[in-house]
Amino acid sequence: MTRYSIGDLAQRAGVAIDTIRYYERDGLLAPAERSAAGYRRYDDTGLKRLTFIRRAKALGFSLEDIRGLLALSEQADIAEVRRTAQGKLADIEQRIAELERIRAGLRALIAACPGHGRAEACPILNALTGDAS
User: Fold this and answer.
1) Are the C-beta atoms of residues 37 and 27 closer than 8 Å to each other?
2) Whole-prediction pTM value?
3) What is the 3-state composition of the chain as percent helix, strand, coil, each rounded to the nearest 5?
4) Whether the Cβ atoms of residue 71 and residue 28 lie closer than 8 Å to each other
5) For 37, which DSSP code?
6) What is the distance between the alpha carbons of residues 111 and 133, in angstroms, rounded to a whole number?
7) Measured between alpha carbons, how far is residue 26 from residues 21, 29, 66 in Å?
8) According to the model, what pLDDT value does residue 25 have?
9) Is pLDDT of 132 > 70?
10) Which long-range contacts (CB under 8 A, 24 or more apart) does 69-74 make?
11) Which residues have CB under 8 Å from 51's CB, separation 6+?
């Protein structure tokens, strides 16, 4: 089995060394074995778990969500994994809809702004201050 120093593991998994230490303290990553000199030594299991965490974060899962997914990955019931992913997708779709609404509002304000003149006549500033005049 391959053994990795914390620096090697960080590089292979694409995360910072401090992230690995944090995940260990938080219980997401099992504490590493220590060499005779006291250095952390990780194996392929640690690399796989760290890669899982990084990929799940990239998909928008929180660390608490990831903790649940890791627990579910040790069970035979994937239905809960699917429900968790569906819930995350619903959250993302809701955020996208909100961002699209914000984008449409900002586009309208930009289109209404002449780009010159007095600040009192700026629809962008008026929208932000609540001045409807």
Assistant:
1) no
2) 0.72
3) 65, 5, 30
4) no
5) T
6) 17
7) 9, 8, 12
8) 94
9) no
10) 70/28
11) 13
pLDDT of 133: 52
Q: pLDDT per residue over 68-113, tens digit each?
A: 899 888 777 788 889 989 999 999 999 999 999 999 999 999 998 8
Selection from 22, 4, 1 nearest residue 12 by Cα = 4
Q: Tell me which of 49 and 130 has the higher pLDDT.
A: 49
> Residue 40 forms beta bridges with which residues?
34
What are the φ and ψ backbone dihedral angles of 33, each rounded to 5 degrees? Answer: -70, 160
Give Cα separations from 24 to 11, 14, 98, 117, 127 (angstroms): 17, 16, 35, 57, 47
State in Å, rounded, how far the first CA of the chain is from the last one: 71
| Separation CA 83–CA 33 (nearest Å) | 35
Which of 45, 39, 46 is closest to 20 using CA atoms?
46
- Other C-beta atoms closer than 10 Å to the C-beta of 122 total 19
